[in-house]
Amino acid sequence: MLITILLYIYLICLSAFFGSSIFIGYFTAPFIFKTIKSRDEAGNIVGSLLHKFSVLGFIILPVMILSGYFVYINGYSNIFIMLEPFVILILTIFSENFISKKMNNLKKQMISITVTAKDDPRRKEFNALHKWSVKLFVVNELLCLPLFYIIFIR
Question: Which residue, 73, 77, 115, 144, could crosslink 18 as a Cys pair with Cβ 3.0–4.6 Å?
């Protein structure tokens, strides 16, 4: 009975995290950039949304780690049910505390990304960090997929 409750908690958290990332990354962000004319304003809105998503991850992922741990020690599943949320949490912390902070500092220095020359070193660094941020976001999504398999197929 306890294992079933823990698996439900785990699955609700996993679904909320994965569903939110899909919704933000593939629906909300593109829609915001299409509808808001100012790229800087759209970037600020999406950045704020992604920060809130990271906070959601800081709450959900430890719950997944703990419930996955108790499920694992009771012999129900494999160790990835606990380790993958831990890896996702580490990647989220890294992205939020290093990449996003550096990008925000660069945005403040440039004042506006759209008027900063494309060959400006700050804009080049910002674009490179943005690419890394997107890659980490996609890796986090991909790491969620095996967890659904572990829960449903076992």
Answer: 144
Domains identified in the chain, total number: 1
Domain that holds residue 66: 2-152
Percentage of the chain with pLDDT > 90?
71
Residue 100 has pLDDT above 80, yes or no: yes
Residue 37, pLDDT above cutoff 90: no
Q: Please give the single-letter amino acid code of residue 46.
A: V
Q: Indicate the pTM of the whole model.
A: 0.90
* DSSP per position, 27-63: IIHHHHHHH-S-HHHHHHHHHHHHHHHHHHHHHHHHH
pLDDT score recorded for residue 66: 95
Position 76: which residue type?
Y
E strand or H helix that includes residue 120: none
For residue 154, the Cα-to-chain-centroid distance in whole angstroms is: 25
Tokens 């505390």 belong to 97
Q: Computed from CA positions of residues 41, 126, 136, 63, in that sequence, does the dihedral angle turn out positive or negative?
A: negative
